[in-house]
Design goal:
It is a single chain. By secondary structure, the chain is an alpha+beta fold. The chain has 2 domains: about 130 residues; about 40 residues, no CATH class. About 40% of the residues lie in helices and about 20% in strands. It contains 6 helices and 10 strands. Helix 2 crosses helix 5 and helix 2 crosses helix 6. It is flat, with a radius of gyration of 23 Å. The termini are far apart. The relative contact order is 0.18.
């Protein structure tokens, strides 16, 4: 998750996930935490998908960047999921049909054209003033890196003189998706937990089979 990104956080402690914690007792610490993290990530996916569906598309960068980062705290028996835009190292480029579309930054691309949706996600969510000469800025009277934003007076800020022309309406995507899906996460997590356990079993089985083959060859 990019630093300073607009995001929402979900935190679950022993009171809400004790049953799942008990279910992974006896499994190694790293494996059990991986299972819990995978289950949480799967459970939060409907919120991510809903948020993506609500995002208006210009280049598609913000939609592509949406995801969930899960952090586990074994000693505190706590899991935290952070949902929001991630830094995927994107760039906006024209498709063969002439449309602007976001894609992965590659060799030979201009570093100045990198897109970081975390820097403008809040502008899409809450709306912003449209200005000339300096890009979108916060509302009148807010502070920007130590300089008061006086867009209505055409004051110089960072990238030349800016002057307000209109207000771009908000397109809420993250808050409504979170509000609609937050109460279902725990319900979904139980099913996601069983899927994560099965994936862990398959990984452990495959690892054991590889070791057996190595021993057979060595013998």
């Amino acid at each position: 998750m990019a630093r300073n990104a607009m995001s929402v956080k979900m935190e679950f402690g022993p009171d809400s996930i004790q049953t799942l914690i008990d279910a992974v007792k006896g499994i190694s610490g790293s494996t059990s935490m991986r299972i819990m993290a995978e289950a949480m990530k799967d459970a939060c996916k409907p919120i991510v998908d809903d948020a993506k569906a609500r995002i208006p598309i210009r280049t598609g960068a913000l939609r592509k960047s949406m995801g969930v980062v899960v952090r586990t705290y074994p000693e505190a028996k706590k899991i935290v999921a952070i949902i929001g835009p991630q830094n995927l190292n994107l760039i906006a480029a024209r498709t063969p049909k002439g449309k602007m579309s976001a894609r992965k930054f590659g060799n030979g691309d201009d570093p100045k054209k990198r897109i970081n949706p975390a820097k403008y996600a809040h502008l899409v969510e809450f709306g912003h003033r449209s200005v000339h000469g300096g890009g979108a800025l916060p509302n009148y009277g807010e502070k920007v890196k130590g300089v008061w934003n006086s867009v209505n007076k055409g004051r110089t800020i960072r990238h030349g003189t800016v002057s307000a022309t209109s207000f771009v309406a908000p397109h809420p995507f993250l808050r409504p998706a979170f509000d609609a899906g937050k109460d279902k996460v725990l319900e979904t997590m139980e099913f996601a937990f069983h899927k994560a356990v099965m994936r862990a079993v398959k990984r452990m089985t495959a690892k054991t089979n590889r070791k057996l083959k190595q021993w057979q060859v060595a013998a």
